[in-house]
Write a structure and sequence with these properties.
123 residues; mainly alpha
């Protein structure tokens, strides 16, 4: 993913900045920031389409293999966020998790997908 787009997504999702604040800080227009974030989301959707949302069928993984895969809950959070466009608050309510935990799991999964895209999936 383009480093600028990645940074914009992080500012929005990780730090909760609004487009207007980002635009002012970067000396850009709100429309320009909005367009870049939309493009970043489209790129993430492409990544997600290439990643299976099915939980692993095999139960006897070793710990190293498990750490390289996302949990079914992390995948569910990513899926609800991008495919259903649900807010973190709604996802937390539906999954009966604290919103902070949903944020943490989402960020881990998103970073994992970024790393997977960087090393395994050429777009």
């Amino acid at each position: 993913m383009n480093p600028k787009r990645k940074h914009l997504i992080e500012l929005c999702l990780e730090y909760g900045f609004q487009y207007k604040s980002i635009a002012e800080a970067m000396g850009s227009s709100v429309t320009g920031i909005s367009m870049e974030i939309s493009k970043a989301i489209d790129e993430l959707r492409k990544i997600l389409k290439l990643t299976s949302f099915e939980p692993p069928q095999e139960k006897n993984f070793n710990k190293e293999e498990q750490s390289e895969k996302l949990s079914s809950q992390q995948l569910e959070i990513i899926k609800r966020r991008f495919e259903h466009k649900s807010s973190f608050a709604i996802i937390a309510q539906e999954l009966k998790l604290p919103e902070k935990e949903v944020h943490r799991k989402f960020l881990y999964a998103w970073q994992h997908l970024q790393n997977q895209n960087r090393y395994e999936i050429p777009l």
